[in-house]
Amino acid sequence: MIRKTRQREVLEKMLVDQKVHYKPQDMLKIINASTDQNVSQATLYRTLADMETNGEIQSITLSDGCTIYDGNTMPHAHFYCMQCGTLMDIDSLPKEYLDEIRSSYGVTISKVDVVINGYCEQCAKERR
Ligand SMILES: [Zn+2]
Ligand SMILES: [Zn+2]
User: Fold this and answer.
1) pLDDT tens profile 57-81
2) Closest alpha carbon to 93 in 71, 109, 69
3) Strand duo 87-92 + 67-70: pairing
4) Max alpha carbon distance in the chain (Å)?
5) Ligand 2 centre and the CA of 76: distance in Å?
6) Left (φ > 0), alpha (ψ -120 to 50) or beta: where does 75 sit?
7) What is the pTM of this model?
8) Can you tell me whether residue 113 is helix, strand or coil?
9) How far is the CA of 37 from the centre of ligand 1 (A)?
10) Which of 33, 41, 77, 106 has its CA 20 to 30 A from that of 125?
11) Residues 118, 82 contacting (CB under 8 angstroms)
């Protein structure tokens, strides 16, 4: 049994319980504000990688190269606003769809990382 660190508990509360998306630098700020010890970026990345291996969270790479972490581990697509950086969950990808990819291409799927890029409703209006 791995002893849970205080940082890990905070991370689980943030990501897994709330099922929201976070950038590592934002997580670092929140953790360091809510615990008395300062967490290094290296420790945070190590803990996140560990949680992802355990299937507790998933990482998504955005078009600007940023990685965000998601507490929702169901295969689902994201919409990313290129102007304001809003990231939204789009409908879950149905199991049948993934099954069809597996059988049509003879592949196994270990991770689903789909990001649709564009402008959110608000930003699209401002650009008109
Ligand atoms: Zn936007
Ligand atoms: Zn998501």
Assistant:
1) 999 999 888 899 999 888 899 999 9
2) 109
3) unpaired
4) 56
5) 7
6) beta
7) 0.80
8) coil
9) 35
10) 77
11) yes
